[in-house]
Amino acid sequence: MARTLREVVYVDGVRTAFGRAGENGYFWKTRADDMGVKAVRELLRRNPGLPEEKIDDVVFAATAQVGDQGLTLGRDVALLAGLPKSVPGFAVDRMCAGALTATTAGAGEIAMGAADVVLVGGVEHMGHHPMGEDVDFNPRFVSERIVDESAAVMGQTAENLHDAFPHLTREDADAFAVESQRKAGKAWDEGVMDEIVVPMSVFTDDGWTVAARDEFLRPDTTMEALAELRTPFRAGGRVTAGNSAGLTDGATAALIASEEAAQEHGLEPKMRLIGFAYAGVEPELMGLG
Questions:
Q1: How many CA atoms lie within 13 Å of 282's alpha carbon, on the beta-carbon side?
Q2: 60 and 36 in contact (C-beta within 8 Å)?
Q3: Does residue 289 have a pLDDT over 80?
Q4: Structural domain boundaries of the chain?
């Protein structure tokens, strides 16, 4: 007899501003786990009808699970956010899809009846933990030709994608970047992001300030300016700092629940999870996934 799965709904979600990674960024003197805590506390403030003891699990993702984003991050964030000690938590990692995987992991608990309400999210402090810094790659990956050595560098995998899809030119990538920056700036100017981004007080070399707006915004970006940028991953390549994702610090958190639990606690669902799946790709073409 087939088992009936429960409906899973998305109730609310927030994130911190995305700060520039490094000593000049908002969050250089802020701990990664404290960014996650800020997002969780704001989420609970926005949903006062939910008793904290009714949260059944906390699932948090990080790629570099070391230092201030190590330990068991979901449990770490739950305790630091003041949740009851009876609320469990765990950590996951699926690289760029980490927070998405935290969401589907929590959704699986709800669908199977193991939980009614789950907090999910992710954090990455690339200033404290630069990409690949704490990783010890097994030499067999390359020596046994399990993966192409370019798979270890994201910028090189992006160049590989241009090779695989030659009709996607540098000009196409630059045009997409210009439009992306324009849309992001417009969203901020029109207040769209005010409903999502949680201002956070942070300490910097200049004293206390509020991290309330993404630092990497460049809405005045032009095609002409992008065309002047160098291609650091390949001579005559197509990937530049201007048409790539920024190196940033930030955290996000979301509240998901069963349809019944949302109704019981007066939570208004904004979306319903219909289904999900994951698949692997050639590591040197990771951007396909």
A1: 12
A2: yes
A3: no
A4: 8-129+137-275
Strand partners, 198: 16
CB-CB contact of 246 with 18 (8 Å): yes
| H or E element, residue 189 | helix 170-189
Q: Which tens digit of pLDDT belongs to each residue from 209-260? A: 999 999 999 999 999 999 999 999 999 999 999 999 989 999 999 999 999 9
- Whole-prediction pTM: 0.95
Structure tokens at 120: 């999910």
Structure tokens at 230: 């160098």
Max Cα–Cα distance, the chain, nearest Å: 65
Q: Which residues of 105-136 are buried (b: 16+ CB within 10 A; e: fewer)?
A: bbbbbbbeeebbbbbbbbbbbbbbbebeeeee
CATH assignment of 8-129+137-275, given 2.40.50.140, 3.40.47.10, 3.40.50.720, 3.40.50.150?
A: 3.40.47.10
